[in-house]
Amino acid sequence: MAKPKVGFFDFTCCEGCQIELTNYGSEAFLELIKHIDIVEFREAMSEKAGDLDIAFVEGSFSREADRKRLEDIRKRAKIVIAYGACAATGGINALKNHTTDYKKCVYGKDAEMPHLDSQKALPVSAAIKVDYSVHGCPMDKYELLRIVTHLLHQKEPVIPNYPVCVECKRRETVCRYELGDHCMGQVARAGCGAPCPAQGIPCEACRGFVDNPNEAALKKVLIERAGFSEYRAENKSRMFTANQRSDSK
Ligand code: SF4
Ligand code: SF4
Ligand code: SF4
Hints:
By secondary structure, the chain is of the alpha/beta class.
């Protein structure tokens, strides 16, 4: 059986997910390339392909000028997978959607340079139909491998829609709140295995929110259990979920 033809594409992002995937010695990547035929991947090769079985798209849709390229990818690919928080939800790029002077802050006197023109940072699904998303910043390469494995076996991939707390409890990690810290695992989408609390740091919801997160309860617990000010509690959840909060819809 011919291997599926796969292409990798990037838009507004740090390309950290590509690096995470191809990291030297990445077992996940070495396993993946045994089963697929990579025909387009700017980071690693100069060839361009035609039709694709799977297109992996990294990065947010943040410039109208990118719409045509995204539509072209959609036309060529049977399956489109948005990988990484930037592509899946807008990720950390979406922070700018809530500020007005971010360009000046970052670029100073060069803020008006034409190549810096952009619109709101949106998920790839704002421009084209996305079939599956691999969440996380960076995405979890083993989850990506699992999704591809399911697809190769004509099985429907399962994307978790329960909170990180479930995985955290499974590995019997002491809750950050019991240690006087904060955490967003109650509303963060699981699938990572809760590595952050296990390493002694809070979950910052890099995989975005579960569907229908209880934002009010999160705010309450951040104030009452972690001692946050109302302002800090309100803004805490913006870092990776700026496009998913109820005040952004
Ligand atoms: S999801 Fe994170 S690591 Fe991946 S491209 Fe976006 S900012 Fe970079
Ligand atoms: S440490 Fe975080 S993820 Fe773990 S149980 Fe507590 S709130 Fe949930
Ligand atoms: S525990 Fe939270 S911050 Fe850490 S990888 Fe999982 S979702 Fe991301």
